[in-house]
Design a protein that fits this description.
elongated; single chain; about 60 residues; about 30% helix
Amino acid sequence: FQQGSLLVNQVHDSIHDYVPEDGDRDLQKKEMSGIMGSVMREYLPRVGNAPVDVKISHYWEGG
């Protein structure tokens, strides 16, 4: 990074986490966002305070 430069790449991580049917998905999304932001600030400090976008999807069916 240099002053005035533009970051044109993105960091992408995939986290698979189980949330029960009656679980609080909004809380889980907030917690995952906080964890990812903390890791980013620790290991990629030059990125600054970039936004963290957490998407939740139904990935598998119970059997």
